[in-house]
Amino acid sequence: MGRLAGEALGDAQPAIGRAPERPDLAGRLSLTARILAVNILPLALLSGGLFYLDTYRTQLINERFKLARIEAQITAEALAGATRERQEALLVQIGREQGMRMRLFDADGALTADSFALAEPAFELNDITDDNWEQQFARWLDRTVDTIVSAEAVTDYVEPEAQTADAWPELVQAREDGLSQIRLYDWVDGTPVITAAAPVGLQGATLLTVRNPVDITESVRSARSALMFAVLVVLGASALLSLYLARTIVSPLQLLASAAQKVRQGRERDVEVPRLPERSDEIGQLARSVSDMTLALRQRIDAVDSFAADVAHEIKNPLASLRSAVESLPKVTDADTRRELEQIITHDVRRIDRLVTEISDASRIDAEMSRATRERIDFAQLVRAIIGSREFRAENENHRIELDTRGFAANVDGVGARLERVVENLLDNAVSFSPPEAPIEVAIDNDGNCVTLTVSDSGPGIPEESREKVFQRFHSVRPDEEDFGNHSGLGLAIARTIAEAHDGSLSAVARPDGKPGACLRLRLPAAA
User: Fold this and answer.
1) Cα(115)–Cα(180) distance, rounded to whole angstroms?
2) Which of 72, 281, 330, 515 could bridge across to 196 with cysteines, CB 3.0–4.6 Å?
3) CATH code at 46-225
4) Ramachandran bin of 473, using left for φ above 0, alpha for ψ from -120 to 50, beta for the remaining angles
5) CATH number of this structure's domain 273-371
């Protein structure tokens, strides 16, 4: 008992000198946080599409660059060689149709024609002073995305005070290179302004087109707003579902952890471990398993307490007898009385030794069975070998043991040494109760599911009301008073414990042939 308790305590203590394992990041996060992270992370990745839209905006602007260059070149070719009236008419017509402002400069860089001055302006730059909160938020979001993606800075669009060609860098470049030039500006409301400069004819005149493609910004903002709204809705729904899922998982686990903590602290009698009968999922199975485990622990603790009390009681009797004999021995001078006292001392010492041996064996059974490896055993051959060995050692006390295997294969999965102990205890019990020279009948049967061993003797038998008591520890009722103290009363209790550890059973029944005597029946699952 003490050794087992020491082993149990040793298993519970952390290894000395071993550094505690540091939990990884997942181990430091609560289950709720992990559920939220798993469900929200994909949505966070999806929200990255907000930044992808910046690439989409760049692609749209590049397409408009190409269009602006082509339009400027075509318009410049149409203006070359046309009369002044024709040039002004073309500027107004093309500017109105394409939504552009078109200006024509002569070779000296002076402004000669402006479509906005010749006719109604084709577009109007937005005045941000009247913008609502949605437009302000859209501009803020544009700036935030540009900052995150490290977008290249764009020059703000400002109308020059002096309307000359030298005020426009793209016009200067076009006049020097003789090629069309494109430039991107940014208006204060966040929309792009695209200018295109192209030489007109061979006399040094140049054309400047200006457009404000607000549809690009509106398209990007609309897609970004729709995506953000969808992400926020799905994110909110995912968070709520995650919290609900976490609650259905974490709450019962917390209840079980709290109950287990109280059991560990030794208050298991006051703890009712929830079984969660309404749940048929893994959490419900875990709850019922923990509840059953707690019940088994309570039964084991009760069994240990009862066993300790029984051990103290059984050892106390021979110790009291031994103490009385030892104290009386020096006072007695009669040789016969001294010889009787010495016999009592010897008997009590042997009785204590037998009790200690049996108690030690009984206390090790559970631990040994939990560590043992089972193997395929021919049970009939095992019983036959035990009977032969007992005959050789003269342990059957002239009792003939009749074995009937009935020709069945009797294979079981178990621990051979422990099953041998069961058979030995059953035969010892039969020999101790059988009258001299009376046979002991042993039979082995196999119905396909169970291998059954019956050991029948010709003794006084076991009354029906006492057939369970014989398996109680230290229970020993024998008609022969001379045999008192020679049996610990643990043999059948040990045998039943081993049988149950093999998923079998051991019981006392009436002899199947109706003859007087006891019959003990061992049932073990047959090997597949």
Assistant:
1) 20
2) 72
3) 3.30.450.20
4) beta
5) 1.10.287.130
